[in-house]
Design goal:
The chain is mostly helical and 531 residues long. It is 82% helix and 0% strand. The chain contains 24 helices and no strands.
Length: 531
């Protein structure tokens, strides 16, 4: 049995490294948006092309998840049972359908790129830029798809630190390319996508090589193709595809609706206002990703007690981390937008507040998707998610298309749907799958998760009234003041004895890992025992 898959220290170290990689990405984008919108004053018509096209990519996981979503889950399960033959069967069986799907997506994507002005509202002077950006994004998707089965090795082996080293290198390459293109060639939104595609393709190739080194069973072999496996993979993937569709609607429908019924400024305001939401959510996904193989292993071992405890602690930790960021962002929303991108985009402050207000509602139940995947019970979660997002879609069309509420209407729709749907639909499901009672969840997750945020809010409101921040320095200073109180209350009041013990243990483990990395070459890190 693969007991190393459920070590707490490994999970904590992997989660921290994932968050560090996402923080770097967020900092670069903060600078990029300020440079393009405030310094260079790129028009909303040009800038809005980027978020609209990226919204298309949000639908890519839905289109392919029927085939791809079961790969990681079933390979982890096979690895936990030391079944190398089944691993080869899984990746060999799924590869040919993925390759065929990638070819079809690339062909349709290139056709869509040529006729993009018939799909979206694009200013004529930026038509060729939009075509090139969409073609590049479709190429990236076509490269990723057939490689997906062979790149899960780092996920299976929980080598998230190594995975994030690769991600950091990819980010540095993207940043370097972006600086060269923006400062040495021209200031165009086109270069954002160009740098992204080149860097991501290089990162994908490195990940492929390392993954297949770590798990040698990730090989395509004709004799290992086992077509009966397709039914099991597709059955799992079908419900996951429904959940991915709901996620794609959540991420992309607002921008597409605003593109058709609003203005370029509406698109830009919503995109800017949703930047904190997107990056905190991405950081949360990265931080909890190391838990997926752990939860799957717990389920394979029928360890119900640890599944329930992980659900409670995951929600508690998610509230602590997210509220440390969300509360000051809501309080200083207007000051932040004025300092960051200027008065033209002040509506983004209201959008930001509406979207960030969702975190206290959602994040106590943040482990629900991971738990559903680990237990292979996707149907109830997927149906609930899709219903909520379809209602959200209809309400957004009404508020934006008929009431002409623009970016604020889009954000308000999301807020209303999640305010109602999360406590009535998603939370009861999370409690049932984890085997946890509502009273226990309130006592061990929600209440301790909220206490530090309430304490910090008092200080942040006070700093805002006294200082009235109008620069990055004053904003950061106010943020630090509240954060100090937040952390003091967290460590003295909210943190439970087991949390404190695990934190100290994790710190020691991180120090040990850093010392080990200094003593090891990159080749030694990659070439650890394979299976």
């Amino acid at each position: 049995m693969r007991d190393n898959l459920i070590k707490k220290k490994t999970v904590v170290v992997n989660s921290i490294s994932s968050v560090v990689a996402k923080v770097l990405n967020a900092l670069v984008l903060v600078w990029l948006y300020q440079y393009l919108l405030k310094v260079k004053e790129i028009s909303p018509s040009e800038y809005s092309i980027y978020p609209v096209l990226m919204s298309i990519m949000a639908f890519a996981p839905f289109l392919t998840s029927v085939l791809t979503s079961g790969i990681g889950r079933y390979v982890v399960e096979a690895y936990a049972r030391d079944d190398r033959k089944r691993i080869s069967q899984i990746v060999s069986t799924i590869f040919l359908p993925l390759a065929a799907t990638a070819s079809a997506i690339l062909a349709l994507g290139l056709l869509g790129a040529w006729y993009i002005d018939h799909i979206f509202s694009i200013s004529p002077e930026y038509l060729w830029d939009a075509r090139i950006m969409m073609a590049l994004l479709m190429f990236l998707l076509a490269v990723r798809l057939p490689l997906a089965p062979f790149t899960v090795g780092l996920f299976v082996r929980q080598k998230f630190v190594l995975s994030n080293i690769i991600l950091l290198c990819t980010e540095f390459l993207r940043i370097g390319l972006l600086f060269i293109l923006l400062f040495a060639v021209s200031t165009r939104v086109l270069w954002i996508v160009t740098a992204l595609v080149i860097a991501e393709t290089c990162g994908q190739m490195v990940t492929l090589a390392v993954s297949m080194r770590l798990v040698p069973s990730l090989r395509f072999r004709l004799k290992s193709i086992h077509w009966p496996l397709m039914k099991e993979l597709v059955s799992f993937g079908s419900w996951n595809a429904m959940a991915r569709l709901a996620d794609a609607i959540r991420k992309s429908a607002d921008l597409i609706i605003l593109n058709h019924f609003g203005t370029a400024l509406d698109v830009s305001n919503f995109h800017i206002g949703s930047v904190p939401l997107r990056h905190i959510q991405q950081g949360s996904v990265s931080a909890t990703m190391p838990l997926q193989p752990v939860l799957t292993t717990m389920h394979a071992q029928n360890d119900k007690r640890r599944l329930g405890n992980t659900y409670l602690r995951g929600g508690r930790y998610a509230l602590w981390v997210s509220l440390l960021l969300v509360v000051p962002l809501i309080i200083f929303r207007k000051e932040l937008i004025l300092v960051w991108v200027g008065e033209t985009y002040l509506t983004a402050a209201t959008v930001m507040a509406l979207l960030l207000a969702l975190f206290p509602i959602q994040y106590g139940n943040v482990m629900l998707p991971k738990l559903s995947i680990a237990k292979g019970i996707l149907r109830p979660w997927a149906i609930r998610s899709l219903i909520m997002q379809l209602v959200n879609l209809g309400l957004t069309i009404y508020l934006v298309g008929f009431l002409k509420m623009g970016a604020i209407g889009s954000a308000l729709s999301t807020f209303i749907i999640l305010l109602v749907g999360e406590p009535l639909l998603q939370l009861p499901l999370g409690l049932r799958l984890s085997g946890v009672s509502l009273q226990r969840w309130l006592r061990q997750t929600l209440i301790p998760g909220f206490v530090p945020g309430l304490s910090g809010a008092v200080v942040w409101f006070g700093c805002g009234a006294l200082v009235r921040p109008d620069s990055w320095i004053s904003l950061i200073a106010c943020g630090i003041c509240g954060a100090v109180v937040y952390l003091i209350v967290l460590f003295t009041v909210a943190l439970q004895p087991l949390d404190r013990k695990d934190l100290l243990s994790a710190i020691k483990h991180i120090q040990s890992r850093i010392q080990k990395m200094y003593r090891s070459t990159p080749l030694k890190i990659i070439a650890e025992p394979n299976e």
